[in-house]
Amino acid sequence: MEFLVAAVVLVGAISVVNILLTVGVVARLKEHTALLARSGHGAAAVLGVGEMVPEFTTTTVRGETLTTGSLGEETLVGFFSPSCDPCKELVPEFLVHAQVAGDRQGRPVAVVVGKDEGAAEFAARLSEVATVVVEDLRGPVSGAFGVSAFPSLVLVAPEGGGVAVRELEPKLLTPQGS
């Protein structure tokens, strides 16, 4: 009988230690999630909704100047990396959206991050329907938007003399019946 009581006490003590350790791990995970969000990694990959886009100036692949002020009404801005598999999957949907919504919302902007051969292929595909910028990771546009994860989509619009983020990861439009 004493053996049985000792076993039950031991199992109870191990269970209490397990619960305490689990609570500690959950608390640390919450801390790390908050740190990642503040550092620009993880879930907070771009400016937040309502935030103003800082001023930037860059040159498109066609040699045109693109600035914060040249972003029109309801401009979709997409950030892509040729080394990112989800980006490769999203590009066709982005192209369809640009063709369908282009007349209503204006020409979207596609930012391709990277300077290799893959970036040139992405830029060529996207330049048919979008204003395309090819730059390094902290280039003028991706730096202004605070992009650290790919793909990232942002809908921006003029607001109060500047340009503000209206929506993060907007649902892309596709033609009816597809």
Automatic annotation (TrEMBL):
SUPFAM superfamilies according to UniProt: Thioredoxin-like (SSF52833)
Which sequence ranges are marked TM in the entry?
6-29
Q: Which Pfam families match?
A: AhpC-TSA (PF00578)
Ranges of residues in domain Alkyl hydroperoxide reductase subunit C/ Thiol specific antioxidant: 49-160
Keywords linked to the UniProt accession = Membrane, Transmembrane, Transmembrane helix
Cell membrane among keywords:
no
Q: Does the keyword Transport apply?
A: no
Which named protein is this? TlpA family protein
